[in-house]
Amino acid sequence: MIDLNGYGPQGKLADEPLVLGDAVEKFRAAMNAEGYGAQEIEADGVLRRFDLPDDKAGAKSGWYVFHADGIPAGCFGNWKEGSSIPWCSKQRYEMTAAECAEHDLRMERAKVEREAKQAEAWAEAANKYWDIYQQLPQAPADHQYLVKKKVPPMEGVRVSQNGRLAVPLRDAENTFQGVQWIDGDGKKRFGSDVKTKGNFYLIPGDMSTVFVCEGYATGASIAMATGQAVVVAFNAGNLSAATASAKVACPGSKLVIAADDDRWTKNT
C-alpha cells in the first residue's frame, strides 16, 4: 500500500502525499462504479488480479495496474472478456507534451504486459480444460437441465462426474478454448481463465442460414425448430463479438441474431 506519510514507491519523497492518496481513492471509485468492487490498490505499477463480485472464489477475472510516480494513472479490466478501462488523474489538456508522451509510453507498456499475461493465461486454461473435456462422456438425454429445458444434448456437449454439463467454447478457427459448466438447476459458469469474448459453441446444421443466440437451451431449441446451424454466444455481452467470429467461421452463411426477449421476465 502507499505510504501517505511522506514517501511513495521506490522511496521517493512524495511532493503531495494527500493528492496521491486522493488519486488512489478516485481510481478505486472508478473501478467500483464500473462494477469491479472497491479494491485495495497497490500503486507500484505491477499488474495484479482479483476476484470480481460475481466470480467464484479464486477465479480472479479482474485486474488492475496503477502507477503513482509522475502523473498517477492506471487501468483495469475483465480478464475473461479482454476489456481494458484506462484512468488518469489528469485530463489530456492539463498535461504538457512531455507528460503526455510519458503517460502514453507507460500505458503502452502496461498494455503489452497485460496482453502477454492474458494470452498466457488463456492458453493455459485452454490446455487445462481440453485435458478435462476430452475425458468426459457425451451428456445423457435425461440430464436434469436438458429435461427441464426440453432440449437434447447436442453434438459435443458432455457431462462431468459431478453431473455438470460441459459446453465447449471454440474460436473462429475452431480451436478449443474452454468450457461453460451448467449445473442441473441451470447455474452457469465458465472455467477459470477461459476466454469468452468472440468465442462460441456451434450447433451443427444447415449452414445456409446461421442463427446467433445467447444460451445453450435457446440455441438447441432453434436448431430443433429450423434445422439450421446455431452459434451460441453464451451471453448478451458476447453477441456482437461472437457474430464477428461467426462471419469468419461460417463464410457465405446468412447470419440472423436471435436475441432473447426479456421484456416480460421478472427480475428475481
Outline:
The chain is an alpha+beta fold and 268 residues long.
Protein model, in words:
- This protein is α+β, with helices and mostly antiparallel strands.
- Helix content is 31%, strand content 21%.
- The chain contains five helices and twelve strands.
- A four-stranded antiparallel beta sheet has the order 1-2-3-4, with helices on both faces. Strands 5-6-7-8 form a four-stranded antiparallel beta sheet. The protein has a four-stranded mixed beta sheet with strand order 9-11-10-12, sandwiched between helices.
- β10, α4 and β11 form a beta-alpha-beta unit.
- The protein is elongated.
- Residues 1-18 have low confidence and may be disordered.
List the keywords.
268 residues; alpha+beta; 4-stranded antiparallel beta sheet; 5 helices; 21% strand; disordered N terminus
How many whole angstroms does the radius of gyration measure? 22 Å
Biggest pleated-sheet summary: 4 strands, antiparallel
Helix content: 25-40%
Stretches with pLDDT under 50, minimum 5 residues: 1-18
Number of strands: 12
CA distance, first residue to last residue:
39 Å
Mean pLDDT across every amino acid position: 87
The total of helices stands at 5
- Based on CA inertia axes, which overall geometry fits? elongated
Report strand order across the widest sheet.
Answer: 1-2-3-4
- Going by helix content, strand content and strand pairing, the class is alpha+beta
Strand content: 15-25%
Element pattern in H and E = HEEEEHHEEEEEEHEHE
Question: What's the structural blueprint in terms of helices and strands?
Answer:
Elements: H1 17-33, E1 48-50, E2 62-67, E3 73-78, E4 85-88, H2 97-133, H3 144-149, E5 158-159, E6 165-170, E7 176-182, E8 188-190, E9 201-203, E10 206-213, H4 216-226, E11 228-232, H5 239-249, E12 254-257
Parallel strand pairs: 10-11, 10-12
Antiparallel strand pairs: 1-2, 2-3, 3-4, 5-6, 6-7, 7-8, 9-11
